[in-house]
Amino acid sequence: MLRYLFYIVILIGWPALAQAHVFYISITKVKWNAQHERLDISVRIFTDNLEEAVAEEGGPILKLWTDKEHTESDRFIADYLKSRLHFRVNEKEVNLEYLGKADALDATACFFQIRGIKDVKKMDVGNSILIDLYDTQANVVRFEVKEEKKFINLNKKSTRGAVDF
Amino acid sequence: MSEFEIYLQLGFNHIADLNAYDHIVFIIALCAVYQLRQWRMILMLVTAFTIGHSITLALATLSIILVPMELIEFLIPVTIFATCIMNVVRPFDEHTKRKVWFNYPLALFFGLIHGMGFSYYLRALLGMEESIVMPLFSFNIGLELGQLMIVTLVLAGAALAVQVFKAPHKSWNLFISGVAAGVAIILMMETKFW
After folding, report:
1. d(CA B166, nearest CA chain A) in Å
2. Hey, are the CB atoms on A44 and B1 less than 8 Å from each other?
3. Is the pTM of this model over 0.95?
4. pLDDT band at A56; cut points 50, 70, 90
5. What domain count does chain B have?
């Protein structure tokens, strides 16, 4: 009896194979590179969410990490992330420079740098990545300056935060 | 905020998130046959779930497993549905007898597959070079706390039905298991891929 039940469950449950994750988180890491006087930044975001976000902004379907990937996918990704992610260092507005991206399991890691950072005392961050798409989106930002790590968790209710070093 | 607090919060929110209701539904299904006075058995269930998590945590830390996400996500509504069926097809009195052990491995198994899902996602978001031990550990504690909150709510619902409205506990179980099974079926239909 139990065995048949098991077969029935498997049969009905099969469609669930295609279920997408319901885990809306991005992780941004900001690390000060004292030697080169710059901030190294990586943004890890689920690839399907990133594609949806770009499409939502009127961009093409990027088909990232496939043979059919859009030839200008880097530009669309950089534009989207730069419009949603802003930093101020020591009370001064700074510019993100897009470097490239890498495939990381289900996520895409996007790399940026901010040059000309001689010292870090205070950093402000505004991060509204994906929050207009998903109500429960959480954007974690991790700062690392001289071995000291600080974390901020941003979401729909609060998209801005600041840390002091 | 510390790293521990951040991931604890993410874990708690993840369980309590109404958009990710598959976990909530599973816990509801798992608790349907119990009442507050059986708290010891519920505690064992929660512990079994935690052990399941911890096993995956250990395995993921040692980079032993990297199970395809598709398989894991397929198993989640299946477990919910199986739990509901077991709640209903088994003679009701047997649920609360100690010799009935079926729910414990089920909870352990569910903890195991959930743990796999989370370690996979956290691995993707943290990058391969980074240790996921601390984030995963805090995340799991957050999940357990969220889970206990849902268990409490379900038991309060049972108390309301049985003590206040004088409904037979058996009816409460049938009602709750039916609702959960329905949700599980919808979850399966929604994700149809052929």
Report:
1. 33
2. no
3. no
4. very high
5. 1
